[in-house]
TrEMBL record:
An annotated Gene Ontology molecular function: oxidoreductase activity
Oxidoreductase molybdopterin-binding domain ranges (all copies): 244-375
BP-aspect Gene Ontology terms: respiratory electron transport chain
InterPro entries: Di-haem_cyt_TM, Mopterin_OxRdtase_euk, OxRdtase_Mopterin-bd_dom, OxRdtase_Mopterin-bd_sf
Name this polypeptide is given: Molybdopterin-binding protein
Transmembrane residue ranges: 26-45, 65-87, 108-128, 134-157, 192-210
Organism: Amycolatopsis antarctica
Length: 376
């Protein structure tokens, strides 16, 4: 190429396989963590029988889903930096040199599109609280496979270049006066710093120590009784039904049924446990819950702890109006039908007269305003 005219952007030292490989390594790690933790969350919500999720440790889902959101957030600046480091290649000609080259370019196109889709729809979901309702989780799950599949193809095709890129010293042969802007090290440091800031800014939604420094952890600590609210009683349309003095819990099992008024529930032996609400959006918060173990209610109605239970809310038609409590959970004595939160009667926005709170579960399965339990 003639040196009399050079487009300055292309001459940046960061457009280099040493930079791309180093950022790519972290992006690969972030994508893998995000994919695996996403699969875990998916299979807890859509059980297959092949995958049983335990009820302990109580905070495990809090950690896996926190990692899902944090690794996704970290991947956004990494992806942008990686694309910046390679974008001059978009202008290289001929467009396609060989079948392998076609596969390589095609997989990069699919990979970039899928990655952008995942990261930005995920971000919107975290920020806006289900703007796509039912549609989002299904599509997010399907595109995850496309993204991860094209990552694998990309890494396999690029392995030789990745190896050379990682072996070479980023500082070698850098003549800053020939070039415009940052050194390669400088570009890498800026990338790590940006990803770090993005992580700290969101991690406070789930890591208590970071709460005060996390500008983006909008959910923590707000809401009645010191716990965030995700769907109020008003928006669920349950205020009248929840406050109706004729309300009674129905417990139905194959060998008998019982109903319990609120006073009868409160008169049963109570269990108190510190358990988190761990929302799929990545925020989580622990609180002190008091109520009746679901296993005790099953026994009272003729079944036994360990039976799978369908939980049905007073809410009509909402996506989260029902949930299934697997046997692992009904056998755990701290899987509660909670009546109290942080020492007070449950606020109506947290599920009064009673709600499910079970250990190591996604928040979306902690059904509020419970009306009926059906054991299988
Ligand atoms: N009936 C019903 N229960 C529900 C929901 C809902 O929309 N309807 N939302 C769930 C979700 S997504 C979460 S994160 C938790 C939030 O509980 P909280 O509002 O008490 O923090 O409740 C769960 N229980
Ligand atoms: Mo949630």
């Amino acid at each position: 190429m003639s040196t009399s005219f050079r487009f300055r952007g292309f001459s940046s030292l960061a457009h280099d396989e040493r930079v791309t490989a180093r950022i790519g390594r972290w992006l690969g790690i972030a994508f893998t963590v995000c994919f695996v933790t996403g699969l875990i969350s998916h299979f807890i919500q859509h059980p297959t029988g092949l995958f049983a999720w335990p009820s302990r440790p109580v905070n495990l889902y809090r950690v896996t889903q926190g990692l899902h959101v944090i690794s996704g957030i970290a991947a956004i600046p990494l992806l942008l930096a990686k694309l910046w480091s390679v974008y001059p290649k978009l202008f290289s000609r001929p467009l396609v040199r060989s079948p392998l080259h076609a596969l390589e370019r095609g997989s990069i196109l699919v990979l970039s599109a899928a990655a952008f889709f995942q990261l930005f729809t995920g971000l919107f979901n975290v920020a806006q609280n289900y703007p796509w309702n039912f549609y989002f989780p299904a599509v997010h799950y399907a595109v995850a496979w496309v993204a991860m599949g094209s990552v694998l193809v990309h890494v396999a095709v690029k392995l030789p270049v990745i190896r050379t890129g990682l072996r070479k010293d980023p500082d070698a042969a850098a003549k800053p006066d020939d070039h415009f802007g940052l050194s390669r090290r400088g570009f890498l440091r800026t990338t790590w710093l940006t990803a770090g800031v993005a992580v700290v800014a969101t991690a406070g939604a789930t890591v208590p120590l970071l709460r005060n420094v996390s500008g983006l952890s909008w959910r923590s600590g707000k809401g009645s009784q010191g716990v965030p609210v995700n769907k109020t009683a008003a928006s669920a349309g349950v205020i009248d039904a929840a406050r109706d003095p004729r309300w009674a819990l129905e417990v139905v099992t194959p060998s008998g049924s019982r109903t319990f008024t609120l006073a009868q529930l409160a008169a049963l032996p109570q269990t108190t446990a510190d358990l988190p609400i761990a929302c799929v959006e990545g925020w989580s918060q622990s609180a002190t819950w008091t109520g009746v173990p679901v296993g005790d209610l099953l026994r009272a109605a003729g079944s036994a702890p360990g039976a799978e239970v369908r939980v049905i809310s007073l809410e009509r038609g909402g996506l989260y109006a029902t949930s299934t409590l697997p046997g692992e959970h009904t056998a755990d004595p701290i899987s509660l039908l909670a009546l109290r939160l942080n020492g007070e009667e449950l606020d109506i926005d947290h599920g009064y007269p009673c709600r499910i709170i079970a250990p190591n579960r996604p928040g979306v399965l902690q059904t509020k305003w419970v009306q009926r339990l059906e054991a299988r």
